[in-house]
Inverse folding.
């Protein structure tokens, strides 16, 4: 039977840097697919921005898009410039749907903390009765490095035994699940707008994010880059040149980060500012603040 998503191949499932997979009856890799995205996202963004900055009505703007008066190149150039301004609200009108599988409950507890502009549907441990051939676990490589991989597997095997025994004895799945660990995998279907996807990438592509969620978001980014490269290229860790531009994490973490050598730390920026001002950075006075507050309202 051909795959439901013809573009989905093993290349979507590269080895996990810093982490790994283990299951007691087979393997279940972390997998991310881009199910769908808002049709003609660049046109939608262009129209949203032009609605803000043009005297033309939305109908007139869309008329120019549809009749070819505005070329695709002009649309891309216009959006590229707008993205540099930080005007983010139009980005909420571009939406992506992802299918995500094989991630741990440890990851899901972090992921669902993103609440604005995102919707989750998650596999239930209450209604899904996991059988032995589908009872799988995520095992970080740190356990192997510590020489505790076999101990981990024995513990998961015992959890599996007790869970299946509970089901066999008539304990409802909603109660049997109490023994399942954070290592148990789960699946998502996610709908997220581009504003929130940028925020997720800001935090979860950072060196300090846990390896599993960092890899999941990396796969989400790669999917968007393949389908809508003009937007996928905007997805970076917060220190990226298209985002905040510098690192604001603890200095010691910045020193450990693989891209720290090419992204400045905020302390460096302060040092540059201090050198530029010869150490005399002047605090804002009430007069300074009033000048900003009253600008445009002068008598």
């Amino acid at each position: 039977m051909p795959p439901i998503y013809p573009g989905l191949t093993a290349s979507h499932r590269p080895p996990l840097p810093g982490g790994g997979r283990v299951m007691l009856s087979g393997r279940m890799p972390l997998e991310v697919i881009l199910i769908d995205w808002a049709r003609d996202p660049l046109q939608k963004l262009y129209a949203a921005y032009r609605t803000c900055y043009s005297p033309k009505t939305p109908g007139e703007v869309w008329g120019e898009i549809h009749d070819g008066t505005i070329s695709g190149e002009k649309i891309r150039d216009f959006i590229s410039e707008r993205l540099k301004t930080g005007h983010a609200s139009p980005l909420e009108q571009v939406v992506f749907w992802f299918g995500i599988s094989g991630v741990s409950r440890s990851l899901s507890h972090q992921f669902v903390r993103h609440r604005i502009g995102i919707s989750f549907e998650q596999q239930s441990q209450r209604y899904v009765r996991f059988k032995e051939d589908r009872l799988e676990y995520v095992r970080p490589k740190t356990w192997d490095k510590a020489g505790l991989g076999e101990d981990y597997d024995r513990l998961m095997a015992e959890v599996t035994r007790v869970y299946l025994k509970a089901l066999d004895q008539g304990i409802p799945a909603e109660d049997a699940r109490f023994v399942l660990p954070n290592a148990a995998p789960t699946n998502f279907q996610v709908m997220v707008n581009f504003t929130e996807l940028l925020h997720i990438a800001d935090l979860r592509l950072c060196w300090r994010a846990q390896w599993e969620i960092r890899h999941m978001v990396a796969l989400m980014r790669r999917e968007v880059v393949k389908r809508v490269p003009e937007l996928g290229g905007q997805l970076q860790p917060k220190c990226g040149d298209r985002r905040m531009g510098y690192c604001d994490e603890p200095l010691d973490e910045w020193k450990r980060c693989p891209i720290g050598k090419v992204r400045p730390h905020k302390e460096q920026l302060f040092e540059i500012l201090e050198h530029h001002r010869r150490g005399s950075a002047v605090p804002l006075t009430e007069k300074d603040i009033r000048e900003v507050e009253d600008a445009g309202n002068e008598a």
